[in-house]
Design a protein that fits this description.
The chain has helices at residues 2-15, 73-81, 142-154, 156-168; strands spanning 31-36, 51-54, 58-62, 67-70, 87-92, 95-103, 116-120, 125-129, 172-173. The radius of gyration is 19 Å and the shape is globular. By secondary structure, it is of the alpha+beta class. The chain contains four helices and nine strands, in the order αββββαββββααβ. Strands 2-1-5-6-7-8-4-3-9 form a nine-stranded mixed beta sheet. A hairpin with a 4-residue loop joins β3 (58-62) and β4 (67-70). The longest helix is centred in the N-terminal third of the chain and has 14 residues, at 2-15.
C-alpha cells in the first residue's frame, strides 16, 4: 500500500513538471528558412528556393551559445542531413537577411570564415556559428578570427534584425 501511494504521489508531482526551455512560443513567426544547393553565398536570392522550416518550428535561440533549438530536433536533423542542400537562407517574410553554410558533422577539415549552420550529431544540437571550426583552446587563430569578425560585420544589420525578430516572437534567450 505504501509503495502504491508513493507511486501515485510521484506521478502527481512529476506530471506538473516541465522544462522551462521547452515551452513553445505562442507568437506566430515571420521567420522563414530556405535552402539552396549553391555552396557559395549569393546576394541575388530567389524566393523559389524550398522552405526547410519556419520560425514556428523554433523553440528558442540562445544569444550566448548561438544554439537554435527546434520543437523536434530529430525531425529537423533528418531534413538537413538527408538533403542535397549546401546553404540555409534566412528570411523575415520575403526579406532576405543572410545565409549560412550547412555543416552536419564535426569531421570537416576545411575552415569556413563565414556563418555556418552547424549540427552536432553527438549532442543533437544546432548552432549558428560565425565560422567553422569554432574558436576554442584547440583552434585559436587571430588572423582567422579577424576575417570572421569582418564577415559578421558585413551582415551585422541583418543579424540584428534576425535577433530582434526572435525577441519579438519570444524565441530568444540569453
Amino acid at each position: 500500500m505504501i509503495y502504491f501511494l508513493s507511486v501515485i504521489l510521484m506521478s502527481v508531482l512529476l506530471s506538473g513538471c516541465h522544462h522551462e526551455d521547452e515551452t513553445e512560443p505562442q507568437t506566430p513567426s515571420s521567420l522563414v528558412f530556405r535552402v539552396s544547393a549553391n555552396p557559395a553565398p549569393n546576394d541575388a536570392t530567389d524566393l523559389d528556393e524550398p522552405v526547410i522550416f519556419t520560425g514556428n518550428d523554433v523553440l528558442w535561440f540562445n544569444e550566448t551559445t548561438n544554439e537554435i533549438r527546434f520543437k523536434n530536433n530529430m525531425s529537423e536533423k533528418q531534413k538537413i542531413t538527408s538533403s542535397p542542400y549546401q546553404r540555409i537562407l534566412f528570411y523575415i517574410g520575403d526579406e532576405y537577411l543572410f545565409s549560412a553554410q550547412i555543416i552536419v558533422s564535426d569531421i570537416h577539415s576545411r575552415i569556413y570564415s563565414s556563418l555556418v549552420f552547424f549540427y552536432d550529431p553527438i549532442e543533437n544540437r544546432f548552432y549558428i556559428q560565425d565560422g567553422y571550426p569554432k574558436m576554442s583552446d584547440y583552434y585559436n587563430d587571430p588572423d582567422e578570427q579577424k576575417i570572421r569578425d569582418e564577415n559578421m560585420k558585413k551582415i551585422g544589420n541583418e543579424w540584428n534584425k534576425f535577433i530582434n525578430q526572435l525577441k519579438q516572437e519570444d524565441r530568444c534567450k540569453k
